[in-house]
Structure prediction request, 622 residues.
Amino acid sequence: MSQPSAPGTRRSKRRSRRAAPEGVHYPRWYWPSFSLPGIVWLLILFVLPLYTVVSIAFGTVDPILRGPLPVYQPWYWSTEQFGETLGKVFGIFGPVYVHTFEYVIVASAICLVLGYTVAYYVARYGGRHKGLLLVLLISPFWISYLMRMLAWINLLDNDGYINRFLMFVNVVDHPVGWLEGRPFTVVMGLVYGYIPYMILPLYGFLDRIDVSLLESGRDLGGSPFSTFWRVTLPLSKPGILAGLIIVSLPMFGDYFTNNLLSGSPRTTMIGNLIDEAFSTTGQGAEMASLVLILMVLLIVPMLYYLRSTRRTAEAR
Amino acid sequence: MTQETIARPAPAKPAVVTAPRRRWWRDPWRKPTILATITWGYLIWSLVPLTIAIAISFNGSRSNSVLHGFSLQWWWSDPDDSLWHDPELHAALFQSLRLGILTVLIAVPLGVSFALGIDRWHKRPATAATFLMLLSFVMPEIILGISLFLVFQHLLKFVELGTTAQILGLVTYQVSYPVIIVRARLLTIGREYEEAASDLGAPPRQAIRRVLLPLLYPAIFASAALVFADTIDDFVTVKYLSGPATSEPLSVKIYNFSRAEPTPAVNAAATFLLVTTTLAIVIGYLAYRRATRGQRTGGVSEFANV
Prediction:
């Protein structure tokens, strides 16, 4: 802090890394003590709960009441409960896992195509409306997810405006039961619910692309399509990957969209299995095992996302 | 591509004489009609359902799907079923506000202090702590909610399900917002101001309180607004951690009612949440603008990106 340094290196990472702990004014424990409450909080209320899940999944159950008896010492873990649930995953729960993946993949793909188009338009052609467009695009972030689903429940009701319109233009002659367990409605709900999370990172990357790069692509003889394919798309690839992960992670854990817009066992997703186990007594061990399986399924995308955000943060 | 005004020769083609008229989709300066249509179509699809849902909260009839004139009965005038007079919804409304305010009061200081410490403590434990924090941010909420429920059931039994458990859970889920926002802000302001303060003789505590903290106000306001809005809307963590029905906030009530016995009062409740969160965001944005007076910022887009 007190050593002089060349202006060019003032903000360089190396310098701050060296200067912080050795700073004259700050004792060694000074800055760590700022993070301490947060670290303790996370250890008790994030790490410990996750460990409890594992302890219950690999624990035993009360033989009479079927309540879970967690086992906290790894050397006493039993795979009986977890194995039983895993057997179900490859047995009767199999279809649930399959169509969860189907819904999530289809919904994320729609989010990507639609979100990319919208983000591209706003970033490149937003012009003087850019501010307004951005506000409209981010407004779903603070509009409750419930409110947005409720809106569709109202619209898709048997008596709702969608059915009235379809009957008015004679596409159908009796109300369509949109809310009675249709994969179409569930996927639409997922897209509607999570697409804002796709648009923002994409917008961030597309907005940063220098227009002169695209112009040089055109000057070098590229068609609009090949300029897009070979310049814009590669430059926005990190945004695409980040967006895909950030929309698909919550979709995998989603149970409410399904409950609100379908509620039928035909469209059950992984989240619904967990939620149903929560409201049934004696399913504690199964619930913990299902949560653990979900965590294992999602750990790779989560780690990938964390690594890529750290990289972009460093690159900035 | 928006530079229509710049005079630029059309891409020269060797065989100019026989060149066919340029087809419209080859014209690099044409208006992006298709993109514009899709974007405005998307915005209509995304916002019109909401306006209808808001309108239904003022419905003159019991119907939840068709409008029959205007009334305030679902907000106020109906003595039994309105948002204000239904005892369950009335209590839930205050529970929502209580959870929102308490979560902000705990999560924001916790997160700001964590971010400050992490930003200057470049050791392995700091990296690990940051990793944990971000992991809690991307973890699907159902995993966090269920695992907190299980820990309060089996290990930390002294925490009763209800307001306390809900706040502990919400803070855990929300604390990463202030951390991320404040860290980004710390990176952009750098160390100069603080160094100047200590060169002028300010002890560390003063340098932080009188120089660094004011510089962090924009980030603090933005994160407080976001945390409040997100907490009010949360119904996953909160539902798993609620004890008796009286501890369920408005969001959980809406979730429970919306397929079971919906009246326009449910829409009124959702609209109330919408208005509250919008107010929080607007106040947060104004405070952010005030705190960044005289600094070069991107305005809305920067507030959006924080």
User: Anything to note?
Assistant: The longest helix of chain B spans residues 87-120.
